[in-house]
Amino acid sequence: MHILDGKVLSAQVEAEIKQRVDKMLAKGQVPGLEVILVGEDPASQLYVGNKEKACARLGLFSKTVRLPENTTQEKLEEAIREANENPAVHGVLVQMPLPGHLDANRAIELILPDKDADGFHNVNFGKLLRGEPGPVACTPQGVMYMLKASGIDVTGMDAVVVGRSNIVGKPMAVLLMHQNATVTICHSKTRNLAAHTRRADILVAAIGKPKFITADMVKKGAVIVDVGMNRVDGKFCGDVDFEHVKEKANWISPVPGGVGRMTIAMLMTNTVNAAEKAFG
Length: 280
Ligand code: NDP
What we know:
Blueprint lengths: L1 E2 L2 H21 L5 E7 L3 H17 L2 E7 L5 H13 L5 E4 L9 H7 L11 H9 L7 H12 L8 E5 L6 H10 L3 E5 L6 H5 L4 E4 L17 E4 L3 E3 L2 E3 L4 H4 L5 E2 L6 H21 L1
Parallel strand pairs: 1-11, 2-3, 2-4, 5-6, 5-7, 7-8, 8-11
Antiparallel strand pairs: 9-10
Helix pairs in contact: 1-10, 2-10, 6-7, 6-10
The structure holds NADPH dihydro-nicotinamide-adenine-dinucleotide phosphate (NDP).
The site of NADPH dihydro-nicotinamide-adenine-dinucleotide phosphate has 25 residues, from helix 10.
C-alpha cells in the first residue's frame, strides 16, 4: 500500500510556485489573492487562515475582506466589484458556503473569469468541459496532480466518483475523463452504490460523510482518493474508513495530510497563473 501524500506533493508544488513568484518579485511584480469571507463559520475561518498563510509563505500579496453574517447581496457584490477593479489582486475567491440568504451563483458570476481563482465561473467551467485552458477548480486539480506525480496513469481505468457537486464531483469526473479514464458518477440517488464502487480501479469519495466508504465497498488494489473533510469530535476525518480500506488499496490518500493540502497549493497555482497572464 502506498500513500498519496499531500504533505510531500503540496510542498513540491509550492517549491515550483515559489520559483515563479521569486522571478516576478525580482521584476517588481507581486501576485495577489483576495478572499471574501462572509460570517463566522469556524471551518471557513480555518480555510481562509490557511490560504493567508500559504500566500505569506510564497510571497503573494493577500487580502481578506470579512463581511458580517447578515451582509446583503449588494454589499457582497460591491466587494467583488472592488476586487475585480483592484490591480493588485489577480485571484479572487468568495469562500463557500455563503449564508443561505445570499445568492452564491450570482456572486461567482460577478467575478471576472480571468481572476476566478477557484475556477467556478460558468466561463471557466465551460472551458473545462471543452478541454480548453483556464483556471480549474482547485480540489479536483490537486487530485490530478497527486495522481500524475505518483506515476498513476488513469488511461483506460474504471473511475468512480462519488459526489456530483459543482466544486468537486463534476469537475473531478471531467478531468478524469480528459485523462482517458472511463468515468461513472454516483450520488445519493444511485442504486446499489457498492456495486459501482467495487469495480472502481480508481475511486474518488467526495460525499461529506465520515468513513462512509468501507473496506467491503472497494476493489483490491484500487487507487482511493478521499476528498472528504469531516469534523468528528474536534478531529478531521475523511469519507473513507482509512484504517480498514488501506489494507485493500494499492494507493490511498489520508485525511488530514491528503487532498486538502493540494487544494491550497492549486489555489496558489491558479493565482500565480492569473498574475503572470495579467503582467504579460
Ligand atoms: P456536497 O454536499 O456539495 O456534495 C456531496 C455529494 O455527495 C452530493 O453529490 C451527494 O449526492 C453525494 N452524496 C451524499 N450522500 C450520499 C450517499 N449516501 N451516497 C452517495 N452519494 C451521496 O459536498 P462537496 O462536493 O462540496 O464536498 C464533499 C466533501 O469534500 C465534503 O466533506 C467537503 O468538506 C469536502 N471538501 C474537501 C475539500 C478539500 O480541500 N479537501 C474541498 C471541498 C470539499 P446528491 O447530489 O444526490 O445530493
